[in-house]
Amino acid sequence: MEFALSEEQKMLQDSVGRFLETACPLDVVRAVAEKGALQSDDVWRGLVDLGVPGMMLPETYGGMAFGVLEAALVSEMMGRHVAAVPFIGACVMGPLAIARGGSDALKEAWLPKIAAGDVRVGVAFSEHTGAREDAGIKVEGGRLSGRSLFVIDGGGADIFVVADTQGGLHLIEAEAEGVERIALTSIDRTRSLSELRLTNVASQPLDGGKDVLASLIDAGRILYAADTLGAGWAMIDQAVAYAKERKQFNRVIGSFQSVKHLCAEMAAELEPCRSLVWYAAHSQDALPEDARLTAGHAKSHLSEVGRFVARTATEVHGGMGFTDLLGLHYWFKRIGVNRQLLGSPERVRQELARLQGWAA
């Protein structure tokens, strides 16, 4: 049995990685973050040309019919280059929700536009991954009211997939009457988060309910873990490169045993996480009995390892690690926000304990 990526999967990740290396250098990331823009239009158009917005959709709607593993490989590249574009909500969770739960008419209306990059999707699920006071969407007579916080990729979204308090899924248009979108500011300026306030908003229900919602949350957690994996390796590479150049006492600091140990420990902690992410992503489509458990393990473990790598890589850089000149803080902050979105490691582990009957 072959426990490795296929040639097609390797080519996909390599193509996205090479494109982002050219189109999304640190100067582009810094410009988007400083201006408070929702995304880099040039980077988004390039991803559209690569077919990324439709990668999870059936070929009949202009997609590529890839699975969660392929999405995780792309997400790793997004994190490695701190790509300032919507992806996890707009290209994966949102399109999957419509593809799995939408009527034929709804799919025909939206999926080809999503695949073409003409329509972006925001995802409002956060109340199901962490209780928040006075938050939650209620449905009455097919209309939605309430507020949802930390809407993923909500800033420039044209439509939203919203989960109500009972786990039902709904599609609403951003310009519909009664929809108010408020931009939220987080430490990670490379991606947008929003708050939705809905007042008697007309919606189109999606089938599947709690089962589809749970599968979408699992997929999202894996992609955040993959994003952290990519961001972590970028920080390790930068720390190693800096250690080879920075001199103290007429020697490069990389020759000091203590610095060698820091770099080696980061690599030893992070590299085994790659197989965990791959297996969790593979399970979503091929091993449903393992899907929930492995998704939770990937999210919670990468959250902890990512924080360790972010802190240690900054420590290797010394005082320079805290400056804007190197831009290391973009990766640091991205890892920090990934840790919290769709459930902190503590919250996710509590869910897994309940799933296995270890907690009430």
Which structural traits does this protein have?
360 residues, alpha+beta, Butyryl-Coa Dehydrogenase, subunit A, domain 1, Butyryl-CoA Dehydrogenase, subunit A, domain 2, Butyryl-CoA Dehydrogenase, subunit A, domain 3, 3 domains, four-stranded mixed sheet, four-stranded antiparallel sheet, 11 helices, 10 strands, 54% helix, 14% strand
Structural overview:
The structure is a single chain. This protein is of the alpha+beta class and 360 residues long. It has three domains: 92 residues, Acyl-CoA dehydrogenase/oxidase, N-terminal domain (Butyryl-Coa Dehydrogenase, subunit A, domain 1, Orthogonal Bundle), CATH 1.10.540; 88 residues, Butyryl-CoA Dehydrogenase, subunit A, domain 2; 145 residues, Butyryl-CoA Dehydrogenase, subunit A, domain 3. The chain is 54% helix and 14% strand. The protein has eleven helices and ten strands. It has a four-stranded mixed sheet. Strands 2-3-7-6 form a four-stranded antiparallel sheet, covered by helices on one side. Helix 7 packs parallel to helix 9 and helix 8 runs antiparallel to helix 9. The radius of gyration is 20 Å and the shape is globular. 47% of the residues are buried.
Brief account:
The chain is an alpha+beta fold and 360 residues long. The protein has eleven helices and ten strands.
What is the fold-level CATH name, i.e. the topology of the largest domain?
A: Butyryl-CoA Dehydrogenase, subunit A, domain 3
**Global geometry:** globular
Strand proportion: 5-15%
Number of helices in the DSSP assignment = 11
CATH architecture title of the largest domain: Up-down Bundle
Q: Mean pLDDT across all residues, rounded?
A: 94
Spatial arrangement of strands, main beta sheet: 1-4-5-8
| CATH homology-level superfamily of the largest domain | Butyryl-CoA Dehydrogenase, subunit A, domain 3
- Number of beta-strand segments: 10
